Amino acid sequence: MKHRLAIRALTVVVALIGAISCEQQTWESAMAAGQRALQKGDYSEAEHIFAVAVKKAESQYGLNDRHVAVALSSEAQAFTAQGKYVEAEPVYLQALKMYQDAHGENHADVAATLNNLGVLHRMHGQYTEAEPLLMRALAIKERLHGPDHPDVALTLHNLGQVYVSQGALEKAEPLYRRALTIREKALGETHRDVEKSLGELTGLLQKLHRDADAALLEERLAAIRQRRS
């Protein structure tokens, strides 16, 4: 009985220490802790920490400050990583509205949130909703950064994935090829993102039964992996 009471008391103390720790956190420290949890794959813990970061931002900076939107976006990422797509969408939308109110439509934060919303809808199988969001993100990024920026390549790649998921392989190919070209030029031929683009394009060509073209890309992939090893 004493043993059980001791365990119960220890649990209460640990919970109190955790609550005090959360209270003492700043927005910056909460965001850093949430990112560490994300990187470790502890998505439930990240979700909790980012919720704390939202409250911290609201109290430190005000309800409509950009810091709140950043914390909301990170909380939505934690939801998405757990497959909580229904929970993630309104959080992303809240962050998007705040970014648009603060910066207008043509801003990197707006484009990034549109991109993430598009990816969310694709992962949820909502391809009709995903496509226009990614198209908007792409247009903003091209205006902000020009046509040959790695951020442009990211959204091209994500839009291509939507078309692949829909079975529209011919629509995906030029997007994958353009993303690959941008990444090779901007990042170098052995970059991880170049390898990712080559892998996706190889798989696409195999689905199109263009085995000779796919084999050439597989050779390039093998060469990149050998140079990195």
What would you say this structure looks like, in words?
This protein has 229 residues and is an all-alpha fold. It folds into two domains: 31-104, Serine Threonine Protein Phosphatase 5, Tetratricopeptide repeat, CATH 1.25.40; 133-229, Serine Threonine Protein Phosphatase 5, Tetratricopeptide repeat (Alpha Horseshoe). 86% of the residues lie in helices and 0% in strands. Helix 8 packs antiparallel against helix 9. The longest helix has 23 residues, at 2-24.
Task: List the SSEs and their pairings.
Elements: H1 2-24, H2 27-40, H3 43-61, H4 66-81, H5 85-103, H6 108-123, H7 127-145, H8 150-166, H9 169-187, H10 192-207, H11 211-228
Strand content: under 5%
Order of helices and strands: HHHHHHHHHHH
Average per-residue pLDDT, rounded, comes to: 91
Give the overall shape, derived from the CA principal axes.
globular
Sheet with the most strands, sense and barrel status = none
Structural class: mainly alpha
- Tally of discrete structural domains: 2
Poorly predicted sequence stretches spanning 5 or more consecutive residues: 9-22
